[in-house]
Specification:
- The protein is mostly beta strands.
- The protein has a single domain, classed as Porin (Beta Barrel).
- It has a 12-stranded antiparallel beta barrel.
- A hairpin with a 3-residue loop joins strand 4 and strand 5.
- It is globular, with a radius of gyration of 22 Å.
Amino acid sequence: MRRTRRTLLAAGAVLSVATTSRSSDAAERWVDRPMTQHRLVFAGDVGLGVGHFRFRGPLNNDVSNTGLGMNLEGALGVTERLELGFRTGLRFGNDGRATGADSYGRTLWTETYGTGGDAVANPELRLRWVAYSGSVAEVGLDGRVFLPVEDGTRFGVMFGVPLTFHVADFARIDTGAYIPVVFHNPAFNGLSIPGYFWFQTSERLWLGPMAQLRFIDPGGADHDAHLLLGFGLGYQAASAVDIKTMILFPTVDDDIVRRFGAGVGVQFRIGE
């Protein structure tokens, strides 16, 4: 009897530890996650994108391309408030290069600049620091460098102030302001204000509309304003694995050039 009691107590202790470990290791719900990875957690993203480009010519001589691309990205939480990241992309065939299809595989993110039309996208290095973290709002500083590996491209940078608002228990807003600069002659520059509105519909599923207002000067001209609209959805398939998908319309206000695309990606986290 004593041996049976000791066995039951030991089994209960093991089950309690295992349950506690699984609970503590699981990632927060999407709307509760901070804007940087936790300390010593590595996040890898692999995404597949399909992009469509159509130019309406004046004599009904339209140009149309539909291509595939892949996004490859990684991020490491150095501290609870500091994150380092790397990004590049692959484009398959002439249509993948023409449409920049890899950017559509960059799921749940719309800020891609400083790339060209080669098979391998310019590497992007980034640093993000959380300057303020409260129960409702987070304020960060974001710096990125675009390395000119592709033919015809130039060195570029982007500075940003990301903002995250955790609304009640079911919603999250990611916004801020970003200023990309690519040092062509004359320089490409602009101002981008994204807005991602996420709603947690279950413990594992979140979704919502995505928007972006851009004021872009391609060099030596007045800034052009463009509106991007889209929709994103994510599902936490395991404690350290997310599946994410989105559809984007980058220039809904342009009557001459039609662009749209969609992507699906997987994020896996190590050390969480």
